[in-house]
Amino acid sequence: MKKILFFPLLRMPSGHHQVADAISGYLKSRNSEIICKKIDLLSEWNPMMESFITKTYLKWIHHFPRNYAWVYKQMAYKSSSNRSYKYYEFLFLKKMKRIICEETPDLIICTHAFPSYFLSRLKMQNQCKIPVINIYTDFFINDVWGREGVDYHFVPSKTTKMELLKKEGISEDQVFVTGIPTDEHFDEVLNIEKKNSSCHVLISGGSIGLGNISDLLKQNKDSEVEYFVLCGKNKKLYQKLKKLNCKNIHPLSYISSRERMNELYSKADAIITKPGGVTISEALKKGLPIFIHSALPGQEEINLKILNELKLVNELNDQQLLEDQITGFFRNKLLTDQFNESIYAYLNDIKAGKAADISKFIRCLIDRDDKTELKRDFIRLDQEII
């Protein structure tokens, strides 16, 4: 039996957990003897502190978004040679080392920057010999992620790959453009044409239902557009939309089934969402035009900037009717052609991120086979132009 440890962060539903679960699913479907285990470093250190930090984080971004964005950029995004994480090393480095000694994994996969940083420190101190992979869950790489000592990097785009090669001096055979991995259910042939005679639109606020969704729909009752609203675990939003009793607004409570989500994607003509890495990646793989209703401070604001540059999303204007913006997009051939061109270019860039290729590479690592040929194949996929 081989064991792989996954390190997301915090226990609340997030893209970090979804990516870890997706990779775990790739492996388990192809080899039942592989043990995949998720560990939250904060919970292992102090469960009560993890719960406190989660609640504080959610309240912080809700009540003081600008302050959170400023702190995030100062602590994790504005490169600074004077920044130090020594205090965090003092608190968590020994705990990370103890976890590794107790679990004795064959491979470690980080889907969050925080544990990646500590593993990088241990690797540089020759206190960890186990291969480590960073799998990035946003469309950029913040400053906290470990670089030195990390064996492989699965990055979201060619731009982020070039940053690691040029700015960090990481070898090309360690970096692969895989996109942000998603559940295998979403890896289907694209169909960007409008699917329905009427317009079916998914609206998502993430797993906890954040965003100004109720305000967004106020002026769209009884329109020709059918809205299917993913409320996540936001029960207040679900009840609020139910009380509207509108025939074209359909609130949906938290959906954990990837099969059910895939069905909803397949029936939709477009999605309105926040710029979270995983949701955006799922929508892109399903060929859905993406409209952004809001962005959380910090990470999502940076994601939005990058996605706009790639011409992969459309920002909604709250001064215009939502229905007009959605239907206007589909009636504008210039806009739809531009989106088709952008999405095909992006998906061509991330062709090394197919479930079969990622799982094959990981299985090779944990089996300790000769990796030369596999690396060559992965690099070919990464560089080949269709």
UniProtKB/TrEMBL annotation:
Repeat as a keyword of this entry, yes or no, is: no
Domain (Diacylglycerol glucosyltransferase N-terminal) ranges: 16-181
Which Pfam families does the entry mention? Answer: Glyco_tran_28_C, MGDG_synth
Coiled coil spans: none
Please give one Gene Ontology molecular function term for this protein.
transferase activity
Transferase is among the record's keywords: yes
Q: Which Gene3D superfamilies match?
A: Glycogen Phosphorylase B (3.40.50.2000)
Report the residue ranges that make up the Glycosyl transferase family 28 C-terminal domain in this protein. 201-327
SUPFAM superfamilies registered for this protein in UniProt: UDP-Glycosyltransferase/glycogen phosphorylase
| Keyword line | Glycosyltransferase, Transferase
Write out the annotated subcellular location.
Membrane
Q: Which family does it belong to?
A: Belongs to the glycosyltransferase 28 family.
The record's listing under PANTHER family reads: MONOGALACTOSYLDIACYLGLYCEROL SYNTHASE, MONOGALACTOSYLDIACYLGLYCEROL SYNTHASE 1, CHLOROPLASTIC
Recorded protein name is: UDP-N-acetylglucosamine:LPS N-acetylglucosamine transferase
The organism's taxonomic lineage, starting at the top: Bacteria, Bacillati, Bacillota, Bacilli, Bacillales
